[in-house]
Amino acid sequence: MFELIVRDRCTGCNRCVEVCPTNVLEPGPAGVPIGARVEHCQTCFMCELYCKEDAIYVGPDRDEREPVNEAEIVASGLLGQFRRDSGWDEWESDPSHENQIWQLGPYIQAGGKRSVERVQKRIAERERGVPLKEAASEQAK
Amino acid sequence: MAEDVTVRGPEPLQIETDVLIVGGGMAACWAGISAARAGAKVVLVDKGYVGTSGVTATAGPGHWWVSPDGNARKEAIDKRLALAHGLGDPGWMERIIDTTWRVLPTLAKYYRFNINDRGQTAYNALRGPEYLRALRHAAIDAGVTILDQSPALELLLHGDGSVAGVNGVRRQEHRAYAARAGGVILATGGAGFLGGLLGSSTNTGDGHLMAIEAGAELSGMEFSNEYSISPRWNSTRTLIYSWARYFDAEGNELDVLPTNYVLERALVDGPVYALLNECPEGLRKVLTQIQPMTLLPFVRKGITDVYEKPFEVKLFPEGTIRGTGGLRIAGERCETTIPGLFAAGDTATRELIAGATTGGGSPNSAWALTSGLLSGAGAAALAQSRGRRLNSKVRALGTVGLRPRGSVKAVDRRSVLKAAQDEILPLEKNVFRSGDKLRHSLRILESAWRELREHDRAIGTDAVSARETASVVATARLCYTAALTRDERRGMHQREDVPEQKTEQQRRLLIGGLDDVWTRPEASAQWSPSHV
């Protein structure tokens, strides 16, 4: 869930307020937006994606807040991770962050096929009476 | 004029347009583009922000993508028809494949499509945030006026029974609006019951509730029990789970196959853990470039050995998002059964293209695109022929949460919502269905409905959450009533108390009604349900 906005980085543009799909944030008295309705946060990281200053940190858990220390988060390198990984803005021409979504379908199909084969083999081996441990090590080969 | 009982504060903003679109995802944007290109003035009102709202914005949708060459389309359609369990429509399938094939490449001005390993442009797969950003730009360039953070609360109706517009609220300005239009399109998404699926917090079934208040027919609401796998603490994307192995708490590996319900059963019985050690090196290297969001919740939990160590997983409810139920489509331009009202995307039934099996992923995306385009053109044509009818007297249709039937009382919405969710979300009730369980759940849902219906009255922006809560309860009630009526097994709808699929129930099941929910098989002389 939404945790914090780093004051030193925030320019007060309120872009995050504008783009939050569940209206979690609102403009704050000191220019830095505040989490007015954090209970509505769906942990979608969209505010981070649209923050060019990399000032926002959203925690990983969608049900519970996990308060963090601002200095530690700044030092962690996690700020701006999603925007960079998405290849937005200044990362747009960086080939290491190039969008590869076309590989989604092929990898899902290959994984699905492989998983079905693995499970069917396990079932067949069990029916033949091969002990599970042996079957597992056989599969590992 | 519409009675303004829903919002207090500054004078309502008056909006007048040819076509009004409610919603802000894929279907809404394609509808806007289509209506604007047909020459209509278009206003789009979204609860959130067009670009981040809805389940596509946080995903990476593939589209049903079949070349017109040779026999490929016929084969693809035959395959889907088999999965549809007798409820699909090959004409609609053909239409969405063809439209998607022709139209999706036209987005190239706004979206940088990938080049695949064969050197071809990969038009079928798009990353969600970039796709919706592109659609927003395309819609604005086409002339669509977008009002973000502007949830619609209720429909407005002309005296002749056709839809005239909506009342809503600009929630960040705390200002009501009244929008009048010649044609209205509902593209508010599927009903996810606030169950935690990524991107679905906006998809509370608002359009479904507004539609049943107008007397619209829905179809296929029993097909509302898809779930998708994610780490327990966050619904992410599911690519890596196609490679996963699953274990119970004792470390026994589970024989999970696509439709054998082993995973669902195990999750009813206790915690389940996924192990991703089968994910190939190639995928690990490129995963973040495919789906940048997948690893984020692991990294931020401090989990660095995601491919080596099992972690707890959960099935997140998809409701009618990857289910197939929704507003009944009554015409080739995605008309609903209410004049002047159109439905697009997941708000509409997707039985036509997916029947009783999820159209999750690509058929649903092709449907969202096509139904958006068709409804946009249809609403534009209607507005051009009938005009905006601004002098006609209209009536506001909002009931629950806005105009209670009984005495106004403080309602504990949170506990009403939880009571409804406790019936509609759990696997043991919604996946492993039975007549007894459904009847029991429906009694609870009925009393949740009555509590809101009799007493809840919200004003100002508070009406948004009142209507969302009511929408969750209303859609859950429709889903379970349909599930009780269809006393057979078909596709995703599985009844523990009925062992088989019944030939006479190979019909779409229509449903509607506000206080008295009704069901009726579509154009059927054979099947007379008698169980509700």
Question: What can you see in these coordinates?
Answer:
The complex is a heterodimer of chains A (141) and B (532). Chain A is mostly helical and 141 residues long. Chain A has two domains: 2-98, Alpha-Beta Plaits; 102-140. Chain A has helices spanning 15-19, 46-49, 70-76, 81-85, 104-128, 132-140; strands at residues 2-5, 25-26, 34-35, 56-58. In chain A, the strands form two sheets. In chain A, strands 1-4 form a two-stranded antiparallel sheet. Chain A has a two-stranded antiparallel ribbon with strand order 2-3. Chain A is elongated, with a radius of gyration of 22 Å. Chain A starts with a strand and ends with a helix. Chain B has 532 residues and is an alpha+beta fold. Chain B has two domains: 13-224 and 323-396, FAD/NAD(P)-binding domain; 226-317. Chain B is built from 16 helices and 18 strands. Chain B has helices at 26-37, 54-57, 72-83, 90-103, 128-142, 206-213, 262-269, 281-290, 296-299, 319-322, 351-354, 362-386, 413-424, 427-430, 435-455, 462-485, and strands at residues 13-22, 42-45, 114-115, 121-122, 145-147, 152-158, 163-170, 175-186, 218-219, 226-231, 245-248, 272-275, 311-318, 326-327, 341-343, 394-396, 509-512, 518-521. In chain B, the strands form four sheets. In chain B, strands 1, 2, 5, 6, 7, 8, 15 and 16 form an eight-stranded mixed beta sheet that branches. In chain B, strands 14-9-17-18 form a four-stranded antiparallel beta sheet, covered by helices on one side. In chain B, β17 and β18 form a beta hairpin. At the A-B interface, α1, α4 and α5 of A face β3, α8 and α9 of B.
